[in-house]
Amino acid sequence: MIMETLAFLAYGLYLAIIVGGGFTAVTNPNLVRALVGLVAAMFGVAGMYFLMNAPFVGLMQLLIYVGAISVLIFFAIMLTRPPAGGEERATSRRRPMAFVAAATPVALLGAVCFKAFKQTVDVPAETGIKELGQGLLGTYGLAFELISVVLLVAMAGAVLLGFKRREEA
């Protein structure tokens, strides 16, 4: 009974972190603060994985997304910063639209999930790392390779934009 209560409290905490971080990432006009919101949301997702007894996937979430992807995005933001005096404008008119853009997919996916998944699903207590690796890299190996190419192109584009801005200045 106490463990279930603690699990519900942890779930609520992680859910609040994910929603708060996601809302900050979507609505904040400052890119660095939006990145902090994104990192907070990714920490919350990692916490959810740990709560679901998937420590390997939780650690990969921390290493890959919180570590590598957030650093990659941070470098891309820093390389493409506007020159001095050209800081981002506060766009208070667009905040309601940002909220609608963030809430619409959540509401639609939530409605579909509540209608489609009313039954209780038996989840295995633990999946071995070997089976997980074979499942991810066997079936989805090409997807992982394509994601790495997309990240490489994004970083190369950020570097090129940074060099182009320096030449113009």
Plain-language structure description:
By secondary structure, this protein is an all-alpha fold. The chain has 2 domains: 1-80 and 94-124, Four Helix Bundle (Hemerythrin (Met), subunit A); 127-169. Helix content is 79%, strand content 0%. Helix 1 (2-27) packs antiparallel against helix 2 (31-51) and helix 1 packs antiparallel against helix 4.
Name its key features.
169 residues; mainly alpha; Four Helix Bundle (Hemerythrin (Met), subunit A); 2 domains; 6 helices; globular
Per the CATH scheme, the topology name of the largest domain is: Four Helix Bundle (Hemerythrin (Met), subunit A)
Q: H/E series, N to C?
A: HHHHHH
Structural class by SSE content: mainly alpha
What portion of residues is helical? over 70%
CATH architecture of the largest domain: Up-down Bundle
CATH class division of the largest domain: Mainly Alpha
Which runs of at least 5 residues are low in confidence (pLDDT < 50)?
none
In round numbers, the mean pLDDT is: 79
Count up the domains: 2
Count up the helices: 6
The profile of the biggest β sheet is:
none
Task: Calculate Rg over CA atoms.
Answer: 20 Å
